[in-house]
Specification:
With 117 residues, this protein is mainly alpha-helical. It is 65% helix and 0% strand. The longest helix is centred in the middle third of the chain and has 20 residues. The radius of gyration is 23 Å and the shape is elongated. The two termini are 34 Å apart.
């Protein structure tokens, strides 16, 4: 698929907006406007992936997000993982790498993707 410039990207976004007004759930898959929308959407997706890549979040960021979502304090997380609050503090500050037991517990109890851990 060809790469597009910033100017083409902006034009493509405008055309997508126009096409979205013309197609709907009941639009036939053979409709030329729907096919055009699919092609333009792919172009925009490729442009955005190249220009605005989203990296993998850090383990620290994910742990802090889960703690916030679950309303956990460091001592709560430590108790959940069967470790000390100071060990959690070391993980979050980057002073210590996480051990395999706590990595498994984070994966199971906080549903953190193993690739991030």
């Amino acid at each position: 698929m060809k790469a597009i410039s910033k100017k083409e990207y902006k034009k493509t976004l405008a055309r997508i907006e126009d096409l979205l007004k013309l197609v709907g759930k009941d639009t036939s898959v053979n409709n030329p406007k729907l096919k055009e929308l699919a092609v333009l959407s792919d172009l925009v997706e490729n442009y955005e992936k190249k220009r605005y890549p989203i990296g993998t979040p850090s383990l620290r960021d994910v742990i802090e997000l889960r703690m916030f979502e679950m309303k956990l304090k460091q001592k709560d997380l430590a108790q959940m993982l069967g470790t000390s609050s100071s060990r959690i503090s070391e993980y979050l500050s980057g002073k210590s790498d996480i051990n395999i037991e706590n990595a498994r517990a984070l994966h199971k109890k906080l549903n953190i993707d193993g690739d991030i851990i």
